[in-house]
Design brief:
This protein has about 160 residues and is α+β, with helices and mostly antiparallel strands. The chain has 6 helices and 5 strands; from the N terminus they run ββαβββααααα. A 5-stranded mixed β-sheet has the order 2-1-5-3-4. The protein binds FE2/S2 (inorganic) cluster (2 copies). One FE2/S2 (inorganic) cluster binds next to loops.
Length: about 160
């Protein structure tokens, strides 16, 4: 019989309690149970970054995290961070620099890029590449993606002056 675990997490700012199968991955819980399909499922073994989410402010792989591990934690998805306006600079830059083609990698790219914006606001182009190296783009739009992150960092730098 499936083992269910009572789990309470704060999901995009709202407290949620569910009985979750102990072996269910976070990405499947969010997509299948909570209807949050922004984060995607690609490789399912921690390589592609399509499933990138944030737990207590740190980016994680949703396909390598069990949903029950989020008990007592805050989980943010691309939907929540978009609604709050946190991703606005990056979203505008991605749009303007044509940094998405099919868009499959984009939610994960945005979360990884936002993590860099917060942790290293002066990041160089090489550091942007390094930080996004765990996120694959099957459309190979890497140049434009790095351009967009560079633009967003510059805009934010200008705003801070
Ligand atoms: S689906 Fe999680 S890293 Fe690829
Ligand atoms: S835009 Fe298609 S996978 Fe990146």
């Amino acid at each position: 019989m499936e083992h269910l675990v009572d789990t309470t997490l704060t999901l995009n700012g709202t407290e949620v309690t569910r009985r979750i199968p102990a072996r269910q991955h976070l990405i499947d819980f969010l997509r299948d149970e909570m209807g949050l399909t922004g984060a995607h499922v690609g490789c399912e073994h921690g390589v592609c970054g399509a499933c990138t989410l944030r737990i207590d402010g740190r980016i994680v792989r949703g396909c390598l995290t069990l949903a029950v591990q989020t008990n007592g934690k805050r989980v943010d998805t691309v939907e929540g961070l978009s609604d709050s306006g946190e991703l606005a600079l990056l979203q505008k830059a991605f749009h303007e620099r044509n940094a998405l083609q099919c868009g499959f990698c984009t939610p994960g790219m945005l979360l990884a890029a936002q993590d860099l914006m917060d942790s290293k606001p002066q990041a160089s182009r090489a550091e942007i590449r390094e930080h996004l190296s765990g996120n694959y783009c099957r459309c190979t739009g890497y140049q434009a993606i790095v351009d967009a992150v560079e633009t967003a960092l510059a805009v934010r730098g200008g705003q801070a002056k």
